[in-house]
Write a structure and sequence with these properties.
The chain has helices at residues 2-5, 19-43, 55-65, 74-95, 99-116, 123-133, 136-139, 144-164. The chain has 178 residues and is mostly helical. The protein has one domain (20-164). Helix 3 (55-65) packs parallel to helix 8 (144-164). The longest helix has 25 residues, at 19-43.
Length: 178
């Protein structure tokens, strides 16, 4: 019975945030995603933003909306995306003929490696998965996917986070680098 009681939760919902926090989260995410999208727009087919990978949306939530979270820190952002991209591409190359297996291996190994390297960044799981399910435009990149979009996009978002998150007196980013 205790097993099922744990599913009820044990505490109140987290408190809401003020308008200032909402504004800075909005501004950071707008600038971060815009910068990555514009970079990809300039480097690749202007109508094709497929290299603006979905996991960057989740990274934006952490980087600009949960700036103090250990999961949002630079080590986790860069390490999580880069390691997960390597694992995802490897899984695709080795197991791509069996997509369900490649997807499961990519995400589960990425989580394990992020834990072992202290770079846990939940969007990294999506970066690994996208390397497997991303289609021909992603598969053709092979290990270049690690650099563009994973490392480059995460790096651009990090620069924006450093600039925007330190403007208000109520924010400080990062909490730690390594």
């Amino acid at each position: 019975m205790n097993y099922f009681k744990k599913m009820l939760g044990s505490g109140p919902s987290p408190p809401g945030v003020g308008a200032s926090e909402v504004f800075w989260s909005w501004l950071g995410s707008f600038l971060g995603i815009s910068a990555v999208a514009l970079l990809h727009h300039g480097l690749f087919e202007p109508r094709d933003l497929s290299l603006l990978i979905g996991s960057f949306g989740a990274s934006a939530v952490l980087l600009y909306g949960a700036v103090r979270s250990p999961l949002a820190q630079p080590r986790n952002l860069i390490g999580g995306h880069v390691l997960s991209a390597i694992i995802g591409v490897s899984a695709q190359l080795w197991l791509g003929g069996t997509p369900w297996m490649a997807a499961a291996v990519a995400v589960s190994v990425a989580i394990a490696i992020m834990h072992l390297t202290r770079t846990l960044h939940p969007p990294g799981g999506a970066t690994a998965l996208i390397a497997v399910i991303g289609g021909d435009s992603v598969h053709q990149l092979s290990y270049l996917y690690v650099l563009v979009p994973a490392a480059l996009g995460a790096g651009v978002m990090l620069v924006i986070a450093l600039l925007v998150n330190n403007i208000p007196k109520t924010r400080k980013y990062p909490e730690f680098w390594f």
